[in-house]
Amino acid sequence: MLNITVSGKAGSGTSTLVEGLCERYDWRFMNGGIIFRKEAEMRHMDLASFAELCKHDLSVDKGLDEALKAFILDEEGPEVVESRLAGWWSHQLEMRGIRLWLEVSLEERARRVVEREGGALAQRVQEIEAREQLDLQRFKELYDLDPADPTPYTNILNTDTMGIEEVLAAVCNIIDGDG
Known about the structure:
It contains eight helices and five strands, in the order βαβαααβαβααβα. The protein has helices at 14-25, 32-42, 47-56, 58-73, 86-92, 106-117, 121-143, 164-175; strands at residues 4-8, 29-31, 80-82, 98-103, 155-158.
């Protein structure tokens, strides 16, 4: 049963955190990106083409979000759900549990992406900004919400100056009731 949703902007470390939580607690997870990739595969589309379809056909995005909500509601489902909107869905569905937002500056997120995937820092900043603008526009149009609005989150953790192990320890303290 769902224990925690993990949300944050691109490059904020949500996937790395979820990996650590699942290893530590022997939990299962669902990532919104997995749902996205599976749907693209079912439609025999590459990710870029499928993303373009989602941009032009908002019903596709809504369908993906409904699938994510089903995982959140499933009593036999994963203990961790990760996506930009998972905290919002959990809040709107009145689910109990921790709704975590990882707050990280644009510069730090871009630095992390460069470290992981390479490229120039300025280029990564521009890419992240462009993606966030498109995502925000889509989320506003679809649901009239901003994922970074703190309303649904029970915990917001600024991880700009924290390493992977520090973030994991801080979140484990929250989960275990020590933080």
